[in-house]
Amino acid sequence: MIYSPNIMMKTEMLAMILAGGQGTRLGALTKHIAKPAVPFGGRYRIIDFTLSNCTNSGIKEVGVVTQYQPLALNSHLGNGSSWGFDGIDSGLTILQPFSSSDGEKWFQGTAHAIYQNIAYIDQVNPEYILILSGDHIYKMNYEEMLEFHKEKNASLTVAVIEVPIDEASRFGIMNTDENSRIIEFEEKPEEPKNNLASMGIYIFNWQRLRAVLINSYSKDGQMIDFGKHVIPSYLESGENVYAFRFDGYWKDVGTIDSLWEANMEFINIENDLDMRNHNWRIYSKNTISPPHFFTETAVIKNSLIVDGCYIAGEIKDSILSTDVRVKEGSKIEKSVIMPGATIGKNVFIKNAIIGENAVVGDNATVYSEGEIYVVGNSEVIGVVSNEY
């Protein structure tokens, strides 16, 4: 999209999706791709959920901030047409690190990434800015959060969700008064006072946030991260900061266990994401593949099978993504097979994630009791046969 500095059309709310995370806890699955580009649920990638939430919430302008291994993510995003961002009054812009006059090239934190893209944001000229993460699985109407923000006359609104109290120390915890105004923020407290965890979703009044960031980077440059620096600064200065409670399904899939668990929950036809609700679709850029094919030896039980699959083995409680091949005699249980993977003959796979384009050779066993077994993207294990 081409912007003219002389045209300043007012946009009510711009969404900025922070999608540059390396995702080191996902190990071999993010060795060559950013975490938001990791496949999920057979035909999606993780970032599809945030993008689709924007589409369904009526947001017209989206900036996607990338950094680590962006090639696969950029290819997936394209011009945003898969989510309806290619219209006359809408747009998706990919924002990558660049060398500035002060020599900085990489985004040092979430707030620093927004500061580095002030020129783009000013061109869109929003009244409000919505900060989102590109690596969570959930459905959320951001328009409802914006209405709450306006009603409270807030300077900053933070989306929060109740988590089990014994897990609260893993999150940023918001302590509020009876009117949902945040009076204290605790970053991963050892003894949390409540279980209202930040979801990493924020709505700011743009001009105020802009002034805070510019002021900081003209002095000490301390406003690097929203959770660690900006939110505490807002509270200290007496800004109107409110908590917007979300009570739907939300999953941070930043670890192997949580990614596997979310996929297993996704198999349930009555899962909390309600994927068959046509009023709130999850959109994606999908590969054009032939219909899946089951041979006479195939056995499928309680599983999701996507286009392009060839199955001659037994599949139970699993997800097979686009263009997966499973040869005769193989058994797959409670596993996620990502796009393009090939499973040889007489293979046993259980409680595992098989990465994109990976190859598991004949007679291999992919199972380790008590943990999720991971085969990385394009990794080859076992003896590979050329037989179909």
UniProtKB/TrEMBL annotation:
Residues 15-265 form the Nucleotidyl transferase domain. The record marks Q67, W106 as: Could play a key role in the communication between the regulatory and the substrate sites. Alpha-D-glucose 1-phosphate binds at G172, E187, K188, S198. GO terms for molecular function: ATP binding; glucose-1-phosphate adenylyltransferase activity. CDD domains: ADP_Glucose_PP, LbH_G1P_AT_C. It comes from the Bacteria. Signal peptide: none annotated. Keywords: ATP-binding, Carbohydrate metabolism, Glycogen biosynthesis, Glycogen metabolism, Nucleotide-binding, Nucleotidyltransferase, Transferase. InterPro entries: ADP-Glc_PPase, ADP_Glu_pyroP_CS, GlgC_bac, GlmU/GlgC-like_hexapep, NTP_transferase_dom, Nucleotide-diphossugar_trans, Trimer_LpxA-like_sf. Residues 297-366 form the Glucose-1-phosphate adenylyltransferase/Bifunctional protein GlmU-like C-terminal hexapeptide domain. Pathway: Glycan biosynthesis; glycogen biosynthesis. Its EC number is 2.7.7.27. One of its GO terms (biological process) is glycogen biosynthetic process. It is an enzyme of class 2 (transferase). It catalyses: alpha-D-glucose 1-phosphate + ATP + H(+) = ADP-alpha-D-glucose + diphosphate. Involved in the biosynthesis of ADP-glucose, a building block required for the elongation reactions to produce glycogen. Catalyzes the reaction between ATP and alpha-D-glucose 1-phosphate (G1P) to produce pyrophosphate and ADP-Glc. Belongs to the bacterial/plant glucose-1-phosphate adenylyltransferase family. Homotetramer. This is Glucose-1-phosphate adenylyltransferase. It comes from Clostridium saccharoperbutylacetonicum N1-4(HMT).
